[in-house]
Amino acid sequence: MTNLAIKQHVVESLVASRKMLPDQIIRDYEVKNGDVIFKNFTELKHLSDKLAVPVKDFFVENDLDDGIKISRKNDSFHRVSEKGGVKYYTYNHLATTKTEPNLMALRVDLHCKDIDKITLNDGHDSKELVYVTKGKVRMDWKTDNGVRNVELNVGDSAYVSPNVPHSFMAMEDNSELIAVNY
Question: Is 68 helix (H, G, I), strand (E, B) or coil?
């Protein structure tokens, strides 16, 4: 099996996160050109076990440029969501990064203005913070006692716990919100 090269700063960061001294741990391995060299996967797994961190943490891809990730409007992913045959939302990704795979920030254009067409989602595993940037938005969510709703205006925000079925509806043309799922 061939050697595994892991960036020295990644190993040092993981070691330090466990309140250990990087120099004391790394001295047991060859360091070459800014990489810590592991003879095989078993050796890396041994360090992973010693630190009590998942092996995957050694392989975090960094897609940042000096700590920054720029996302251009015309290059970002977007998709239109329909519910029951009705154009409901357009999801526009904001900056995404492999260094924070559980963070999803979206600019959401709200299209549905028909109260009879409100369709709650099934909820999702992530926490969600929403902030209204344009227009007026109706937020509906399911409770043990039925469905509740509230009107949100520009500058208003709401937090949604994981697995709470919810929906947003435009109460005015061009309504928009920012949703941050994490």
Answer: strand
| Whole-structure pTM value | 0.74
CA 101 to the chain's CA centroid = 5
User: Does residue 86 contact residue 80 with C-beta atoms inside 8 Å?
Assistant: no
Q: Cα(58)–Cα(37) distance, rounded to whole angstroms?
A: 12
Tokens representing 4 are 């595994």
Structure tokens at 170: 């435009």
Q: For 22-37, what is each residue's pLDDT tens digit?
A: 999 999 999 999 999 9
CATH number of the domain residue 117 falls in: 2.60.120.10
SS3 of residue 136 by DSSP: strand
Task: For residues 111 and 173, state if they share a domain.
Answer: yes
- Report how many domains make up the chain: 2
182: tokens are 């994490």
